[in-house]
Amino acid sequence: MPEPSHRGAPVDAPGISSRPEIDAPAGGAREMLELTQLADREVEELQALHTLDPDQVPADAVKKRLGPLFWFAAGWFLLIVVLALAAPLMERAGFLPDPTKAVKCANPPCSKLGILKQGYLLGTDNLSRDIFSRIVWGARVSLLVGFSSIFFGLVLGGAIGVIAGFFKGKLETVLMALTDMFLAFPAILLALAIITFASTSNPGEEPRLSRQVAVILALTIVSVPPIARLVRASTLVFAQREFVLAARTLGASNLRIMVKEIVPNVLPPIFAFGIIGVAIAITAEGALAFLGLSLQPPNPTWGGMINDGQKFYLDAPHMVLVPCAVLFLTVLSLNLAGDRLREYFDIKESVL
Amino acid sequence: MSRKVIGGPTGTGRDPNAKLLRVVDIKTHFRTEKGTVRAVDGVSFTLDRGRTLGVVGESGSGKTILSRSIMGLLPKRNVVRQGHVYYEGTDIIGLPDEEMRHVWGSEMAMVFQDPMTSLNPVKKIGKQITESLFLHLHMDKQDAHDTALALLSSVGIPEPEQRLNEYPHQLSGGMRQRVVIAIALACGPKLLFADEPTTALDVTVQAQILNLLQQLQRERHMAMILVTHDLGVVAGRTDEIAVMYAGKVVEHAPTPVLFSNMKMPYTEALLSSIPKLDYPSHTRLEVIPGRPPDLINPPRGCRFAPRCKYAQERCLNEEPPLIAAETPGHMFRCWFPVGSPEGEEALSRNLAAGASASGVPVTDVPMPASLAGRS
Amino acid sequence: MRFVWRKFAQLIVVVLAVTFLSYLMLSLLPGDLAQVKCGISCDQQSLERTREELGLNQPIPLRYVKWLGKAVTGDLGKSGTNQQPITEALQQRLPTTIKLLVFSQLIALAIAVPAAVIAAQRAGGIFDRISTTLAFAGLSAPAYVVAPVLVYLFAVRLKWFPATGTEGLKSFVLPSVTLALAEMAAYLRLLRSDLISTLQEDYITMAKAKGLSPREVMIKHAFRPSTFSLVTVMGLNAGRLLGGTLIIEVIFALNGIGSYIVQGIFSRDYFAVQAGVVVVAVGYVLINFAVDMLYAALDPRIRHARAIA
Ligand SMILES: Nc1ncnc2c1ncn2[C@@H]1O[C@H](COP(=O)(O)OP(=O)(O)O)[C@@H](O)[C@H]1O
Ligand code: SF4
Ligand SMILES: [Mg+2]
Fold first, then answer.
1. For testing contact with chain A, the best of C22, C129, C144 (most A CBs within 10 A)
2. pTM for the model
3. A39 Cβ contact list (under 8 Å, min separation 6)
4. Is A55 in contact with B169 (Cβ distance < 8 A)?
5. CATH class of B21-238
6. Which domains does chain A have, with CATH numbers?
7. Which residues of C touch A185 (CB under 8 A)?
8. Domain range list for chain B
9. Atom 3 of ligand 2, residue of closest alpha carbon
10. pLDDT tens-digit series, residues C214-272
11. For residue range A298-315, what is the model confidence (pLDDT) as tens digits?
């Protein structure tokens, strides 16, 4: 059981690590750390709340509303999701030009704002392709990769975390050592290697996996260790609580306790982190696309568009600035929503 | 130890003949999203030089906030502080922190509840003591070192020379609290606040620390406000006692008078909840049924009515004012005081009905006469 | 002293584990080195011959041990693509990466620390709200989004700094700032929230009750105990940062270790990637070693716990 001491060093525990036990990854892509960092603070706060004298914690000190920023973020995100889902419909209805083909445009890249019906709402790129359409189709890639990799990451990492946190002992040590090992390896490198491994082939052979699947697989694998750590930390908190002890004295089986008591309690805060995780995964997909490792051209991806646009700063800055802005806003909105939900769930926790 | 005469910005109004501390109707409210928390709601008292006042009440009754409010140590944001605090005749309540800094440490000091958290974990004990010596008394290094040594010996710390170079975590709780006391006393304050100085300590060292405080207070002719939730702690150690409930002083009397002739049902309940001598003296006062009231929406009448065995209809609607008892210096807030004919009648009426006007079950007389004479 | 030895042993173990794992993984990649060397039109026989020459038909553990034996003597082999000795290439490239790391950390700390102090002192005030919002935005802006915008503004439009290259300090400004931005945001948030909770500690009220000014309270009492998680995260960040340089070096066409590794991955240059990974792993462990030392210097409780242990 980690000490409820907040931030401070584990004073009375010589022999354990020389630094406070912040369960953050010991390496990994820049993005992966945030998740865990946030997670650890969360867990500490939870523990602090549980140990404090309720008289001294004025319940009203915590905000209960989600606030306008949350709704703004949710709104932007919803817009992206709707556009992404509606892309095939819009194309069929003639609103959205083919993202891989040139549209009519006198001198590409056309940066003039057009109207939706004529295409190039956001201008075109150097190959006369409609940027709006590429953004919308690129959103499908980002969202698919972001959500599915975090979904699988949550399932796998969640299982590992709950098991480690619930059974403790040797099993926990082994599982956590394994996650540590993965975390010691920069995640972006790991992802690069996995994608190369999974989606390239000897000449003449079929690649083992499509690029899309390879990217999802890579991001799933790198997301498992931090998620496992996070879930383990939450599980540790709940495994001590009265209702679990009560269930145990009533003779409930371990599996039953895990599924019926631990998982429902661990889920809400983890859900909020999952949203931040999606933001991180979208960022990572962007990085891979930027390096040319996600979906291959001419298929649009946001990261790929940024990379393409870099060559045309002088003539067509919009080529790079538009996908930058869209990616930034999307990641920001997910982060914001996740952060607000995290605070929101906090209250629920303290009320428990 | 030489004492620098603190001119300070407050010096002009300072009157050495005035009472050391006069608190007039002090209020401290916290603005929160749920509403205003009336943590301290109109407290007044006077304290002379070298005298001791015990402030007693259950946890959450506003004792800590009261003492921090008097010292001006509360944050400014979302805190409303009203009333007057006359220190040597000067009202210090509106003073900005820059001016209060001349008073803090040199004129008033505070010993906190938990010595585990009131010492900086990453600073050597010597540094933590000498800091205020440099600041207020402008000592040089050697003087400060010698003074710190003397202070550590005076609070009964063995091998003081060695301790100066140690960190707080190297000392036991009791030793840490002695260090905190040494720090508080470093510049020879005239007024010491001791906020539950022994609550966090081992039972075995509690009495030692209390005796040390008492001894130092006498030696230095220092006024002391001893805050505690345990009537037993203040019994033999204070001149006067103020009993607090829900942000208000509900009874105030010279210590012997309070014990021999208490008027408040709340004080009576507190006293009957003092554990026997062989119990740990920091046992929580959970003997009184119910919890202290919500400080955002306190009960309309007497704030103790929902838990009081004497409560009548009147208590639920009218708030009792602070009235003087027959003994000088004894005041209380109650419509049906303990030991008065009204009180006896109220209690027997409730006994007969089996419950008070607010519905508290009343079965037998909880207050054996033998306990009342304990002081 | 014992502590130093323990750390040293840890270093060896980490380096061994990382190199073996990466060796294993890279060896399992399809499109092997022999193929690359031999060329597309290579027939089965000459492919086998190249395999043998490169020792690729031996079992992986044996190959690893051989590689390790040479690596210890400083011979990391030759690049499969241009035959340049890898050790030489790394030596040329290391300074660039180190400069990038150092500059970015300096920039991040130089801005994050004062900003966190000011924000925490007036928590909830204007400065606090603006800086935490900006930090939040900073955390949502990946390097490959920040870089184009910075390049567009400062290189293309204002022409203050070059967009690429390693000529002089000026060319490090944009890459370092890009890399620093997310770090800065993370440090700011962390230090600010730790400062705020430290400022609520009893010993801070106690310091205030001694008559110290808010400045003195902040500098002499609150700051140091609030840096623990910052320092910890800086150590943990080492890996993340090293990963970050990878992208930055590609974006700004800097010839550092990161871009070397990426190029190696794309051209299936195992030994180059392998060597790059070793450098990253050693760097990671060294940085964490430094952080442990710093941590012990900051927190006496750790020093004593260690003396007892
Ligand atoms: N910062 C704050 N905001 C709101 N309410 C507070 C705050 N600090 C204390 N309180 C409330 O003020 C009341 C008195 O607290 P306190 O003086 O600490 O009680 P005591 O010291 O008697 O146990 C409590 O009900 C507490 O919840
Ligand atoms: S008798 Fe009435 S006024 Fe007196 S304490 Fe009880 S409730 Fe309050
Ligand atoms: Mg208190």
1. C144
2. 0.80
3. A23, A226, A229, A230, A233, A273
4. no
5. alpha beta
6. 1-64 (no CATH), 68-351 (1.10.3720.10)
7. 18, 21-22, 239
8. 21-238, 255-371
9. B334
10. 999 999 999 999 988 888 778 766 777 887 888 899 888 888 998 998 888 888 777 78
11. 888 999 899 888 888 877
